[in-house]
Amino acid sequence: MRHAQRGAVLAGIALAIAATLTPIPASAASTAYYIDSRPGSSCSDSGPATQTQPWCSFTPANAHGPFSAGDSILLARGASWNQQLSVSGTGTANAWITLGAYGTGANPKILRSQGDNDLSVKLTNPDYWAVEHLEVGNAAAGILVYYSTKGHQGLRLTDITTHDNKGIWAVHSTGYPNFPGAPVDPWAAANNIVLSAGILVTVDPALALTASSDYAAKGITATAISGTHNINTLAFSATNEGPDHKQSGTFPLQDITVSQLAISDDDGHAGAAYQAAGLGCSDAFRFVGVTRAVVRDSSFFRGAACHTNSGTAQVFIGMVNDLTFVNNSFVGTPATGSNDQTAIDFEYFEKNVKLRNNYFAGNAGPGVEMLGIHPPDPAFPNSPLDVVTTEIDGNTFAHNNWAKTNATGSDASIHQGGTSSAPSGPVSDNLYTEPNKNFLGGDRIGDLVLTNNTAVTSPGNFAAAQFSGTQGANQWSYRYLSGGGWTDLPTFTASPFGGTWQRTAGQYVGPSGMAPLSGGDVARVWTAPYSGTVSIRGRLLKSDTGNGVSGGNGVTGSIVKITGGSATQVWPTSGGPQVIAGTDGVGVTTNRDSIAVAAGDKLYFIVGANGADNSYDTASWTPSIAYTSSTTPYAWNFTTPTDFEAWNQNAWNQLSAAEVTGGALTLTSAGTDPYILSQDDLALASSNRYLHLRMKNQTSDPAGAIYFTTASSPAFSGDKVVTFTSAVNATGYTDYTVDMGTNPNWTGTIKQLRLDPTGSPGVVSIDAISVGSV
């Protein structure tokens, strides 16, 4: 990405979040200030700000001056405001200041008027602040945390919904458009808002950090943050890149933990007025000027969703050190005609960045892009930032770079572009299915060390991406141990973060989180749909650790295969279950290869309390399972939204719409000859003669057909087709089996398939397609 401006559930989830946080005691002299704008609240801005007579607006709070240790500013649930709240103050490690909510109902809302200089909350130079249970939107920045002095500690952001925060990009706005030579927006520059965000943590560019021990703020957590239709949902953007930082290698923002972040459809500048002003949607999450940070258990979906001349990425990182992304999913970076269109952009000066056990699928550009296009500054030859070191381990890649429009034209899932810096580090134990693509490519990709990266024919079953509120959906179910036997967890509680299956609030399985009770293990269970050999990738770690949170005696983990009535532990390979210590936020890999399964076999991923103490027992584990060989070489299940699983979106016929959502590929026919094409390199042995199709035909025409090409006859023609008949005007799915071997030309090596689902206009939904020998 050539960035234009570098310098300038819920009950279960709520209790799980609470379990991961150190209690914040209040001092004896602390004061609670209540604010309630609702009719009938008896509010008065000249009143005492008590619960019986709260303030109405933010005006008294804005005029209050710095708040004191232990104070609380509490907004009424169910209330809303269109006013900026500006607060400051210094708490202590034993007496945090809280900006939060009280009462019952929906979280309080601070929704502005979409002005280019609107803020919902501005928090200046905070020490030991907890900001929680809010909804912010329609602003240039929902929550702006601004540090103008150094040495601050303690910031907790919890349960915050952000949406429609936009208007600033590259320090420009519609009032100060992003044209060559045009002035920047002075208000944005004064607040160091490079890009709009739902939550923006930034640092005054004039702040001098000269010693290696200097920092603006450390000890920051962001938990259960959701965002949509923003520019960034969450940004840590300390964009002071002056000589002090380059020479000393200082990082303004330190010790950051982000978890349960849910980003979707961040497309804030898609509108015509923003595009005309040269404003883009370059990214949805960013780390700039950061060291020692972890992002885990989070979902990045269709971020950076509008055209941006400089390029797009769901995650942008630059001037960073010691970052870890673990157990996250990065799905569906859209094709917007921009450069890059990647999931993660390593833009400049990255050191010790670890990508562990994440899922990259259906991104228009590469899953990972490492750029060497910003030359080191010759004035500072010893700068520790002028390096790119990374570890890409245990991830699952599926159907990335399908649009083939990143800046250099590389056709790879992991792309390295530019020669000004050399990447180094291992790329190991990854699973990938990238038809018609390379797994790795680019100018200096050969500088990385490759070990045990395995190509698979079908996407891996990544537990978090396929998590569902239906037991058994996508081959996954969720269980607990009781009385020596396993039982399905009985209750599903929905939330913006995927929800949880639970027995009690303290015993549950979520998309990545797992919490057992003493004597009550929990498991996510994968059922093999057909026979073959699978590889497993995963990392099990404690998730209630970091930034002062610790406790408990850890958890245990194991993988057990159930075949009929026989149980075999497949990980660890010897001894009993693996113990994960109570403070182990790094965890251990749970990788296994060459595991034979028969149809119906089950793999139990089990987490247990380590003895009688089940406090602080939340673990993160989102395994991925993929067939490396099977009786069904190809299976397309369309379980990941936006991932067409290499059915060629650039070569379809007579379709007015096509989308992958709700676990199905839904096609809208606009004519009498609609069809879709598979990838063009199936290399499928003709002994796999049975095509299984689960389809709902809502049109009036029952006629369907499967065309094919072979290595010896690579063009579609009327002599290489098998027809079938489907139920019309269907309200549910029907399973069809088409015996392709009835056509004598189904021989040798099959190269490509073409599915003609109907011969009339209307909607057809395809739940799954597979080809195999049975």
List the helices and strands and how they pair.
Blueprint: H1 11-20, E1 32-35, H2 59-63, E2 72-76, E3 80-81, E4 85-90, E5 97-102, E6 109-111, E7 119-127, E8 129-137, E9 141-147, E10 152-163, H3 186-190, E11 197-203, E12 217-228, E13 232-237, H4 243-248, E14 253-264, H5 272-276, E15 285-296, E16 299-301, E17 312-326, E18 329-331, E19 340-356, E20 359-361, E21 368-371, E22 388-393, E23 396-398, E24 412-417, E25 423-424, E26 426-428, E27 431-433, E28 438-442, E29 449-451, E30 454-455, E31 461-462, E32 476-482, E33 485-488, E34 491-493, E35 500-504, E36 507-509, E37 513-515, E38 522-527, E39 532-537, E40 539-542, E41 555-563, E42 566-571, E43 578-580, E44 588-589, E45 592-597, E46 602-609, E47 619-620, E48 624-630, E49 634-636, E50 655-661, E51 664-669, E52 676-677, E53 684-685, E54 690-697, E55 703-710, E56 721-725, E57 734-739, E58 749-756, E59 762-772
Parallel strand pairs: 1-2, 2-5, 3-6, 4-7, 5-8, 6-8, 7-9, 8-10, 9-11, 10-12, 11-13, 12-14, 13-15, 14-15, 14-16, 15-17, 16-18, 17-19, 18-20, 19-21, 19-22, 20-23, 21-24, 22-25, 22-26, 23-27, 24-28, 26-29, 27-30
Antiparallel strand pairs: 31-48, 32-33, 32-38, 34-35, 35-36, 36-37, 37-47, 38-46, 39-45, 39-48, 40-44, 40-47, 41-42, 41-43, 41-46, 49-59, 50-51, 51-59, 52-58, 53-58, 54-57, 54-59, 55-56, 55-58
